[in-house]
Amino acid sequence: MVLDDEPLRTTIMESRSLVVQWIRSPSEEEPRRHASEFDLDSAVWCKGPVLECKGSSAVMDAAGPEDEATAECMFVFDPGGGEVRVDSAEVALAPRCAAKVHRLVPSTVP
User: Fold this and answer.
1) Rounded-to-integer distance, Cα 11 and Cα 8, Å
2) Distance CA 82, CA 72 (A)
3) Can you state the percent helix, strand and coil of the chain, rounding each to 5?
4) Average pLDDT of the chain?
5) E strands, the chain, in order
6) Cα torsion for 23, 26, 32, 34, to the nearest 10°?
7) 52-78 burial by CB neighbour count: b if 16+ within 10 A, else e?
8) Choosing a second label site near 108 at 20 to 30 A (CA), which of 15, 25, 52, 65?
């Protein structure tokens, strides 16, 4: 699955089940810091595709500099053999810091 159509810089926040693609920021650290603090309920989420998972799945930044996928660059999740919906929102994380955020939501939608 490809998120959106632009190769934006991406970081994965496993603790919040978020994939953060930054649009603009004065540094690489700003989106990480602000995304870990922003209120998820304040975002206007667009419901995205539903993925059927028959076990563990991994999310990673395919545009990263690594030659191979390693455990350090992946977020592995297991929805228990069910479905996961990928919701997305564009958010202003702080002044001069904006990002597209994508979250994994357990789904009962067929």
Assistant:
1) 10
2) 25
3) 15, 45, 45
4) 79
5) 9-13, 18-24, 50-52, 57-60, 74-77, 83-94, 97-107
6) -90
7) ebeeebebbbeeeeeeeeeeeeebebe
8) 15
Number of H helices, E strands in the chain: 1, 7
Q: Is 20 exposed, middle or buried (0-12, 13-18, 19+ CB in 10 A)?
A: buried
pLDDT in tens, 50-78: 888 787 777 766 666 666 667 666 777 77
Residue with tokens 């304040």: 42
Q: What size, in residues, is the chain?
A: 110
pLDDT value, residue 22: 81
pLDDT of residue 27: 84
Tokens at 15, concatenated: 């603790």
What does the alpha-carbon distance between residue 18 and residue 35 come to, in Å, rounded to a whole number?
Answer: 9
Of 26-30, 42-46, 64-68, minimum mean pLDDT range: 64-68
